[in-house]
Fold:
Amino acid sequence: MNTPRIKALLFDVFGTVVDWRASVIAEGVALGSAKGWCVDWETFADRWRLEGYIQSMVKVNAGEWPWMNVDQLHRQKLDDLLAELKLSLSDAEAEHFNQVWHRLLPFADSRAGLEMLRERYVVCTLSNGNIALLTNMAKRAGLRWDCILSAEIFRKYKPDGSVYRGAAEMLGLKPSETMLVASHTSDLLGARAAGLATAFVGRPQQWGVGGPLEPRPDTPFDVYATDFVNLATKLEAMAEPLF
Amino acid sequence: MNTPRIKALLFDVFGTVVDWRASVIAEGVALGSAKGWCVDWETFADRWRLEGYIQSMVKVNAGEWPWMNVDQLHRQKLDDLLAELKLSLSDAEAEHFNQVWHRLLPFADSRAGLEMLRERYVVCTLSNGNIALLTNMAKRAGLRWDCILSAEIFRKYKPDGSVYRGAAEMLGLKPSETMLVASHTSDLLGARAAGLATAFVGRPQQWGVGGPLEPRPDTPFDVYATDFVNLATKLEAMAEPLF
Structure:
C-alpha cells in the first residue's frame, strides 16, 4: 500500500461505526417491557441481523430475490420473527421498531475518530444500509460524513466487487486511492479483491460473547487498528493532505 | 403545500448554493494572467456553462449522447473552447482548470442558512453535478449536507422527473414530503410536476448583468425567498422538527 495516495476512506457502518447489537437489544427490551412480552432480545437481535440481513443479501446478490433495500429486508424478517414468536404490533409500531436500524448508536470513539480522519481524507460511508437509513442515522448520531454512499446506488450488496469499484469511481478516484475501513474480514477481502486498500478495526463486542473471531487468521490487510482514533494516529504519519 | 409535512430540502447547487460565474471568472483571470493570455473571461464562463453544461445535458437526456457525468461534459467543452481560442494547456493544467467547478464559492448566506435549515430538515444536494464534484466542493467550502444526491445516481439530468422522484424515494420519503430549493424556474417546474414542494431563491447575480429574469412570471411556487436565511425564517413558523 502506498499510503500517501489514499484520498478517501470508505466506512462499513453496521458493527464498524455503530453498535447494532446493543442498540437493537436496548430498544427491544424497552418495547418488550411496555408490551409485557417475555422475549430473549439477544437472540432476537442476532437472528434479525443474521437471517434478515446477511442471509437475505446473499439471495438478492444471487438473483434469487429481486432488489430490496435494507429497510425492506429488515421489515420482512421482523414480520417473520413477530409471527413466529406470536407477538402482535400495529403496522405503525412495527415500522417504528424496524427503524431502530436508523437509530443505532455509535461506538464511543466513532465521532471523534471521524473528525480526526476528516482533516486528511474524504470520509464516506460504504454500507449495505440504504441511503435513508444512513442519512437519518448520521443526523441523529452526529456522525459527520463528507458523502453517504450505499450499495443501494449500485443495486448489489457488498462484498460484490461492483460496489467497491463503483464507490471509488463516483468519488472520481481509482480504487487504489481509496481505503475500506471495516471490522469484518469478508468485507475487507471483497474490497481488497477490487483493488482498494484495507484497514481492519477491531469491534469484538459486536456479536456479544462467543462471536466469530475477527480478523480471520492470515488476513493481509494494510492497517490494523483498535478503534478510529487509533486508526487516525496510525495513518497520520504517512498521509498527505487532500486539500 | 402542507409545510409541516416537509421533511427534507433538496438543493440545486450551481447558481443556487454557489456562485459558479464569479468563481469561474476569478480562476480564469488568474490563469490568463499567469499565461499572458488576453481572454474575455465573462464570455468564456457563460459559454462553458451554457454550451458545456446546459445544452450538453439536453443531448444526454434525449439519448443523442451516451451518459457522461458533468466533469466529463465540462472537460469536453473546455477542450473545445481552448482549441477555438488557440490557447494551449497541458493535460494536467486543463484537468486542474476543469476542476474549478469543484472549487466554486458559496454565496454569502449559504453556509449560515444551511446550518439554520439543518436544525429542522434533512438538507441534501440534488444537483446535476456529479458526486465527486459535490463532495469536494462541500468539503472545501464548509457546506454541511446531510446527504449528497446527484442526477449521476439516476443517470438522467434534471428536469427529468425521474431524478426528483428517485431522490425522494432514496430518502424514504414521498415526493410531497420533500421540497426543491432552486433559483431556476425550469428546475422548480420539473420538481413541481414530480410532486415536490418548491422554494424559489433569488440569485439575480448568477448570469451577470442582463441575465434571464427569474422567476419567470406567473410561476406557482410554494415559497419565494431572497436567500437561505430568509428561507429558514419563512419556513420556521410553519415547520415541525423531524427529530
